[in-house]
Every structure is written in C-alpha cells, then in structure tokens.
Amino acid sequence: MIASHRWLLRVALLVASVTPPLLQAQDRPEVRIGTQAIGLLTSVEDIPGRGSLTEARIVQPVVMLHAGALHGHLRFTGTLNLEGQTIPRGELAPGAWGEGYNDRRHPHTYAHELLLSGIDLLGPFDGAGRLSLTAGKGFAPFGSDDPMSRPVVRYPVNHHLAQVLERAVVIAGYRAGPVFLEGALFNGDEPERPDQWPRVSRFGDSWSVRLTALPAMGVEFSVSRAKIHSPEHRPGAGKDAWKWHLAARADRMVGRVRLYGLAEWARTEEADGFFVFSSLLAEMAARRGRHRPYYRFERSDRPEDLRTLDLFRSVRPHLENSILGITRFTLHTVGYGFAVGPRASPLVLEPFVEATLGSAQSLDGGVLTPGILYGTTSVRSLSVGLRAAWGMAGHRMGRYGDLLDAGHEPGMSHDHPM
Amino acid sequence: MATFSMPATSRECPTITRCEPGHGSTIPFSLTCGTMKTARLLPRFILLMFSSMACGGGDTNSPAVEGVIARVTGDGQSATVGTALQPYQVKVTGQGTAPTAGATVQWAVVSGGGSVSAATSVTDAAGLAEITATISNVIGAQVVRAVAPGLIDSLVTFTSTGTADVPALAQKTAGDGQTGTKALPLSTALAVRVTDQFGNVVAGVTVSWLVIQGGGAVASLTSITSGAGLATVTWTLGASAGASAVTATVAGLAPLTFTATAVNSFVVLSGGSNVPERYGSDLWVADGYGYSGTWGFRSRAGNAVKIWQLNGTGAPTLVDSIITVGIGTVSDIEVSPDGRWLVFTAEGGSENGIHVFELTAPGVPVFRAKSLVGTGLHTGTLAVIGGKLYAFTAKDPGSPALIIYDLSQAASGVLTPVSSTPIPPNYGIHDTFVRDGYAFVFAWDEGLYIFDVGNGSNGGSVAAPVQVSHTAGFGGETHNGWWFHNPTTNEKKYLFIGEEGPGGVGTSSSGDIHVVDVSNLSAPVEVASFHLPGAGVHNFWMDEPAQRLYAAYYNGGVVALDVSGTLSGNLGSRLISQLKPGGTGQTYVWGVMLYNGSLYVSDMLSGFWQLSVP
C-alpha cells in the first residue's frame, strides 16, 4: 500500500510547487477542479473461457485540476485517476485490450495527466503565431481524445491504436490561425500497473506529430503520425510500432441540440510491417435538455497475446515477438442517458443504459480465435449505470497548450462529458 | 415402305406411315403438329426419308413376295485386323421352306469398316449365296448386311470382330522421370502401352520389368497389358539417393527405360492429430517413452505433460499425462542423461518455475520437487557437471537471469539454486546449451553469452559462472542454439543459433539459422546462415555423426540440413529435406528430437509425430 500511494505524494508535491507561484503571479489565477465517477453494472454474454459474467464496478473515477496563471500563459493540467483502486482487475469490456488486459479495459495510472504548459511563449515576436511548450506526464499528441472524455462509457477496442497515453512527454506546439502543429518526444513504454511511472531512461525513444485544422468553430480535422519504440516491453527490447491516425470531429450547437460526431481511422504496424492492425470508428451523440442518445460503430483489430491462466490477462512483459492471431471486432454500441441533476448546476447526475452488439472474427486463422476463446463469434454486452460529475470542464484529454480549449463553442465547455 | 402426305394446309399434321411391304396398310406415327409451321416440319421429313430407305432396301418398285433370307455360316467370327474372314453364307427360301434359286442377294458393310468380296451374289439351287468379308485395320465389330430384295423378311446381318495384330510398338505412358523419397514407392506407377502396326492397343501382352540402376524393386517382374493395352507396375526406389532406372521389355520390341531420382526426405511414420484439446510445446524422448509439453490455451490450458509409449517400431501411443494445476504453459521439458529425472519448466500461472519428477520406471513419473519462480522459467536445460546434475533455467520477466539448480537432492524434495547470473533485460534469456563445462546463453536482443560453468578455462563454476564472451547480432532475436561437436573432423568449431523473429502462432513465423564460428570462444564470429522462405526457426536437434542438423521451423515444419565440411555464406544448398507433418495450415512445429533413428516432432497444432529421417 505504501508503494501504491507514492503517487499521491508526488502529485501533492508537484501541485504545491506549481500552484503558489501562479497564485502570486497574477491578479486572478484560474483554478478549476472537477470530479467524476460512474457506477456501472455490466453483463457480458460470452467471456474468455466461455460463459457469461456480470460485474458492478465504479469506473472512471477522476479528479481533475486545471490551473492557469500569467494571464493564461502558464497552464497546469492534472487528472488523478483512481481506477487502480476501483477496477484493479480491469473493467469488463469485450474486445478491449492493452497493458496486459484482454476483454477488460485496463485501469489507468493514478497520475493520468500531470502537465505544465507554457503558452504563446514568444508573445508578439512570432506575430500572430503562438508557440507553446508542454511537459509532464500525459497524452502524446496523436490520435483522438481519451475515450473517457467522449460520450460512450464503454471504451472502444481501438484505445491503443488511436491514443498514446500516460507517457513522460514534452510537446512543442505552434498555432497559426486555425492550424495547429504539435510534435512530441516521449518514452515508448506503456505502464503495466496503476502505480507505475514512465521509464525516464527511455524518454525520447518515441515521437509523434499531429496536425490539426479547425476550419470552423466546433469542427476539426487532424492527421497524426507516431513511432513508438517497444511499447509492450518496458525495458525496451520489444518491437517498434508505427502509427497513423486520421480524424474528423464536430461538436457544436445546432438549434437547441448539441451535436457531437467523430470519425477516425487508425493503423498500427509492428515489427517492420509483419503485423498490421487497423481501425475504423464513428460515433455520435446528441443532447437536448436532459436527453442524450448516442451511438458508436467500430471495426477494430486486436492482437491476441499469450494468455495467463486468467484468460483476461496476458503475459507481461511481452516475452517474444509472436502473437496468437488477430481478431477483428465489429461492434455497434448504442446508449441513452437522462440527466436528473439540478439544472444550471455543476453537479451532473445521469443514469444511462448502454448496449453493445457485434461480432468477433479471426483475421488470420491464428491459434487464439473467438471460437476457441468465447465459443462464439458474437459479442453482446449490456450496461446500466449512473454518471456522477461535478464541475467537469470541457477538458479534452490529450489536448494541451493552445489546443486545450480549442474548438469549443462558447459556453459548451461545461457540458463535458457529452 | 413409308409414305409422307402433306396436309392441305400447313396447320394440319402430316401423316407419317410405317412400311408394311405387301400389305399396303399404314400405321400412323404418333406425331402431332398443332400449329407447327411448315419450316419446322423439315427435320421430320428428313427422318421420314431415312425411314423409307431402311424399310425397302432401296427398291421401292418391286412388289414384296413371301420368302425369307437367313444366315447359314460365317457369323460371329474373330480375326486379326486386315485379314479375310471365312465366307458369309445365306439361304433364301420362298413360300414354305422351299429354296429359292437365282435370287440376288445384295451385300454391304454396315459398320466397322473393311470390305466384302462382292456387292451381290446369286443363290444356287439350294438357295445359298455367299461372299467373303475382310476386316478393317481397326479392332472392333464389323457388321455386314445381306439383303434379298422383294422378300417380306429380306435382311440379315453378320457381325465379326477384328482383333489387334502382333505388338509393333511399346510406349511409356506414365511414371517416367519422377522424383521420390528413397526406399519408398514412387507416387505414380510405371505404365507402358503396347500397340500393333496399325496403332491398335494390344491386350494380353507380357511386359517384363527390370531394375537396372539405383536398386529398389518393382512390385512384379512381369505384368500383362489390359484391354486398353496398358501394363503397369509399382516401383520402390532403392535405399540410396541418386539416379534410378527400370526397363520395360515386350518380346520382339526394343526395351523402354524409365528413370527416377531417389532423394532423401522425411516420411511420416506414425502419430499426429493426437493432442486435439491443447497446443503442443517442447518434447523429449528417452527409454522408449516420449514426453511432450503443452502451451497456452486451446480448449484447455497448457498445463499437461503428455506421456507417449513407443512400440517396437517407435510409434507413439498416449498412455498418461501429468496435469499440473496452476500453470499455463509447459515451456521446456527434458529427461536427465541417466533417464532418472523428468524436468519441466512452467509459465503463465501461479505454479511457475521448475518441476522435477523421478522416473521410477520409464514412463512412470513421480513428483519429487519444485521451485517456484513468480514470473516463470522460460527454459530448462539439464547437464552433468562434476558428476552432479544441474538444471540451467531461464528466468525472464522482471529481472532476467540464468538460474542454475542443483538437482542432486531432488529425491528429498530439495532443489537448490546454486547461482543466479543476471542477464540484461533486453528481452531477457531464452535458452541455454551446456557442453564441456560451458553454458551458451541465448539472450534475445543481447545476443550470445558464453559462460564457463565448470570447464575451468576461465575459472568458472556452476556456483560462480564466469563470462567468457558476449556477442550481439545473429538477427537480433537470439533464441536457442547447439554447439556442434563433429566426430568426423573432431572439430568443435560451429555453434548453430536460432533466431526467432516475429510470428503469428499457428500461421506465420520468421527468423534464420545463424552459424557461428566459436573456435575462439572469446570471439565468436558468424560465418554462415540459412533462410527458409516463409518460415522461422525454433528448436534444434543434431545427428552429429551424420553431420546433420534437424530444425523445427514452425509453419515450415521440420528441416534437415547437411552441415558437413566447411560452412560459409548462404547455406541454402545444404537443405536436405523439409516436411510439414500436419500439412499446410495444420503445422507449427515447436521441437524435434532424434531417437532410435526416428525423428520425433512436437507440433503445436497437430500433436506428436514419428518421422523417418532423410
């Protein structure tokens, strides 16, 4: 337990070391705190080893701190994620994978985001352009927003194809009008436990770039490229991953309805192209008043790793360069939420129901096929839950510097999450 | 005869009547026309004309009279093609049975070719008439018609058969130029077709077969041509690789020579499809028993060691299993040189580590000891050093290390780790080969480590291994190896290293064999390599006296390489044979081991096999 709480001390020290100067350096320092948790009852029909399973868990318990100083030139982004306590064995989610978990979404590290950003560092010296630098632990500029900040509660299968998260990262960003260019260096290793920190010795062995265009308020297009060295073998002897990501996103008010849509394509090549995994995802949501229906389509590939006796887990660190097959998940997730909390309050209470139907097919005839693993190629899950949030601002996880609040329509930031 | 009367309009049916010589009555065919147009009646008209010709023999003016024509002699003969038959004779009789003299009989060949000696002949006083027919050059039936015009029963036929002439030609039709496994029958039987001077197949001809080169045998020294003129025989090649030949001889004709090339090849002798519920892993064979591990998760976890009893021919039969609850994979397995200890390593569960069983009798393991290692042991290699049995194990995740266990107290349940040598966590340590007091550690991205573990050259021991050298390279994914002691040359020059590249288990693999000159153990140098397209190498076994390397090649099956002489550069030409025992799509070979002249194979997909070696 002592080790597991070292992160708390680190967070506290960092926040303490940053926040007081901010408070002294400007007249009205901005500090924003938000928190969220979701009580979730999920039933899955076909699990690894066959049979069905129903679990109740608290997922996505986060505490978020945003602070700004020096007239917005210095920003702090912190997200404390307590999933290491609430879902240490992961969240039941057919198709999910990564960090040694399969068909369970892994718990995130406690220090999910912990970054400082210096914004418009050159002031008037670069004209209308704005240079920003961000450093800390968080998302590399690649792909789309963290699923936690998106409408569907269930994580998509492509989480590790479309996001690069929880790295020690330094990001340089430059904004020229509606175009943002970000480049970053970071460590390639993924965490294996919630209390694990990035390997400092590996900082700089991986990179990513992302070009984002915002042609209109609430509309965004992006293209990303990344090379990640040995993500699944922390010491660094694993294979490299080369990634592409394209996305189109819209989030704006249309009349009295807030509409959200995201379409993305992602592709990861490993071992010099020996393995290729791709993903197509489209999701949408609409909020009017208290009602919030949403839908996601996804077709994503998952590498099958050697499992342990717990078939939800795979051997970590990854020992060899082989996989046991590639499974393509084609899933439809539909949900509906109804806000019951007081209007015009930072408190949001939203009961919801969410169902996923689809299929899993072996792409390459490997030895771990859906038929062997689940006894079926069908994917069926049903969740009911209650989202409770207070003061959650429109922070899109994975966007820092000038992109932190970019692209939102005025007044929409407090609607997070959709 | 037949008549055809066109109706007044084309919409009416024409009437087709059948010949009734001498009676004049008509029997309408059951043809209807409905609204048939005139143009569509043309085929029927043609049909009618043919009917007319068949009925009357061409003479439509003579009135039919009572009388018959009948065969007397000559029908049903058989003769060589191109030769004359005995005469055909008919008898014509009138009212009652009285012979009709002076009647003209018309003769013609209806089918089968050939000829008749005269188109007509006239009956004598006894009513007899005859001609001579000659068979055509083609074997088969010949039909000759005799017609006495004007009679009610005016037609008879004679049928005779033309048979082939003597053999004039023999030809090879199948089986020539084959390549086959030595000492095994060729896949295609040898076949010869015999024909006469006219090209007719000749049945019943004796063909004699004789092996004239390469040894081996034919299934029969002679065979008889069939009705199709074919004679066949199965040819089993000789015991040596090389050119082979067989002659086929037909009396009076020049012999034919069939050639074949006998090659070295693996052959499936027994086994396979015998572990359907689990994926296979490593194997060992000793004292008439085979032991094979299991891996990962199929319909059951890889927590079993299968025990195979080998019969007199070496064929395996599953007789028992060791199931160890709490493990997910049996990652390596070996029997001690004295046959007393069965040792396996385990991963993927709570009982990870090394497990030791005593073979109180061959094939009868009794658990004695284990040492658990939380993150598992990837491999274990047994070696006797200083008279003691040790297990050299590969600890991987976390803090990779070469852990050496003393097994001398295993009977008492005690496994004593005598040393733990850290290996950099650059994907860790995968396998160890121990010989002459040296431990060759195959350490993935780190490459090759050589430790003195008792040789004395560098002052090392099992308790305190001393590093002799460290060499990176070998494709970057150094997995396993074998230090080749060549009894022919007395050299200890070559170390074979397996590189395990990326792969999709069950479907694809990559990685080559690297040949390293370890004449100077302090400075190993790669000198040669072998690449098998489309597959990657896994574990090795060697037949050192034969200077052969056998390699498991995952989806490439098993491979035999000639490693005699000097090894340099690309060893592609050293490939002796390759076999996928489970067939394409059902082959993913983990390991091989030579025992009593057979190569035993553990295939992850298709189970435990016995092969003959090339």
Task: Please sum up the structure shown.
By secondary structure, chain A is mainly beta.
Plain-language structure description:
The complex is a heterodimer of chains A (418) and B (614). With 418 residues, chain A is mainly beta. Chain A has one domain: Porin (Beta Barrel), CATH 2.40.160.10. Chain A has four helices and 19 strands. Chain A is globular. With 614 residues, chain B is mainly β. Among the domains of chain B are: 53 residues, no CATH class; 99 residues, Immunoglobulin-like, CATH 2.60.40.10; 95 residues, Immunoglobulin-like. Chain B has a five-stranded mixed sheet, with no helix packed on it. In chain B, strands 15-23-22-17-19 form a five-stranded mixed sheet, with no helix packed on it. Chain B has a five-stranded mixed sheet with strand order 41-42-44-45-49, with no helix packed on it. The longest helix of chain B has 15 residues. The radius of gyration of chain B is 42 Å and the shape is elongated. Chain B starts with a strand and ends with a strand. At the A-B interface, strand 16 of A face strand 43 of B. Strand 16 of chain A pairs parallel with strand 43 of chain B.
Look at the structure and give the mean pLDDT of chain B. Answer: 89
Query: How is the biggest beta sheet of chain A arranged?
Result: 16 strands, antiparallel, barrel
The neighbouring-strand order within the major sheet of chain B is: 4-13-11-6-8
**What is the CATH class of chain A?**
Mainly Beta
Classification by helices and strands of chain A: mainly beta
Which spans of chain B of ≥5 residues are poorly predicted at pLDDT below 50?
1-62
Look at the structure and give the mean pLDDT of chain A.
Answer: 88
Quote the beta fraction of chain B.
Answer: over 45%
Give the terminus-to-terminus CA distance of chain A.
35 Å
The quaternary organization reads as heterodimer
Indicate the CATH architecture of chain A: Beta Barrel
From the alpha-carbon coordinates, what is the Rg of chain B to the nearest angstrom? 42 Å
Question: What is the helical fraction of chain A, as a range of percent?
Answer: under 10%
> What is CATH's topology name of chain A?
Porin
